[in-house]
């Protein structure tokens, strides 16, 4: 099956890209809400990034909360943000509300691994390995 723009959701047009982003179903939002792995995890699993999920541990890399660490308490797909434990602000009435953080602005330091997640990591790692071999093979022949 040939991958077309409609299937993978990538467009050169700003208008179509924005429409795709804001009308994406939850399954595609999960993939959009990916974050890079830390150097240690990247070396261990041979994977650059992975979709975030509850109970992953992350460190914030950008913004006013840079350097703060914590466990993900919620992945709010509708708003494209994640909530991290102990990262809250006080409302004027004294109520505490979580601060939303963009997934692209964090780095995963510890993964919550289960059977499905291990399969995803394994699949992505074999894909990267095959791509490297293809690249090395094309360099040798030229």
Broad structural category: alpha+beta
Number of helical runs?
5
Q: What sequence of helices (H) and strands (E) makes up the elements? A: HHHEHEEEEEEH
Low-confidence stretches: none
Beta-strand percentage range: 25-35%
What oligomeric state do these chains adopt? single chain
Number of strands: 7
Descriptive notes:
With 142 residues, the chain is of the alpha+beta class. It has helices at residues 5-8, 14-22, 26-32, 39-45, 115-141, and strands spanning 34-36, 49-51, 57-60, 69-76, 81-90, 96-101, 106-110. It is globular, with a radius of gyration of 18 Å.
What's the short story on this structure?
With 142 residues, the chain is an alpha+beta fold.
